[in-house]
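hey so u asked for the seq, here:
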Amino acid sequence: MTLLISLTIAVIFGAAAYLMLKRDLIRVITGMILLGNAANLFIMAAGLRRGRAPIVPSDHDLSDPLVQAMTLTAIVISFGVATLVLSVVYRVYDSHHSVDLRRLSSAEAAQAKIDDQLLPTERSARVETAEETESELEEESMLEGTRR
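ran it, structure tokens below
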């Protein structure tokens, strides 16, 4: 049984490492989630003891509740982190229409080049124009929402 659990954890770790080396952000995040799940399984397997529940003081062997509590906490935290990262990826896809890391890095390099060429007065004017455009788009979307 211990060998089966160990092999399962190793396969999940391997799949997570493989996915995290891909260029697609969704696959990277899937690998990150798998890595967290494999770590949780490893923690549970390391603290695996057969015994009764530690509710009532007893002379028998008891299982350790700390391992289970730590794993449950890790599951909740990894769920929150995965939700946050997926929302950031959605925002990146919405703005750049791609989740490919090479395209995103080239877009970032192009934007940095543009920012380096602008004078400080042009930067502030460009930021103000972008903020005005954003507020106009928000007003239009609100008006369209009330019309429906």
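Residues 35 and 59 are 38 Å apart (CA to CA). The chain has a mean pLDDT of 81.
lmk if thats what u needed
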